[in-house]
Amino acid sequence: xxxxxxxxxxxxxxxxxxxxxxxxxxxxxxxxxxxxxxxxxxxxxxxxxxxxxxxxxxxxxxxxxxxxxxxxxxxxxxxxxxxxxxxxxxxxxxxxxxxxxxxxxxxxxxxxxxxxxxxxxxxxxxxxxxxxxxxxx
Length: 137
What we know:
alpha+beta, 4-stranded antiparallel β-sheet, 20% helix, globular
C-alpha cells in the first residue's frame, strides 16, 4: 500500500508540473507538449475516438466542482484518478478510484474567489492514459 501512496503522490506532483502556467509568449511555445503525452478534446493522439469516455466533464453545483468521466469501471479497464488543478498548478482536489467503484465521479469544494477563473480537470485511465479538460468555474 505504501508504494501505491507514493505513486499517487508522484502522479499529483506530475499533474501540477504539467499544468503549470506559462508567463510569456516565448515560454508558451516551449511548453507545448508533443502529441501522446497529455490528451485533450483537440488532441486525442493515438486514442482517436476515445475522448467521449475519457475526457473529464465538470459541473458546478452548490459551491462544488463535480467531475465525471463517462467510462465503464471494470476489473481490467477503469478510471484510476481525478484531479482538479488551478491555473497555478495547485491541486484543489484529488480522488483515486478502484476498479470496483460503480462510476468515476468526484466532488471538490471550489476555493473562495474562484468564479471566472481557469482550472484543469484531469482523468487518468489505466489503459488510455492522462486526459485534461480546461474549465472556467
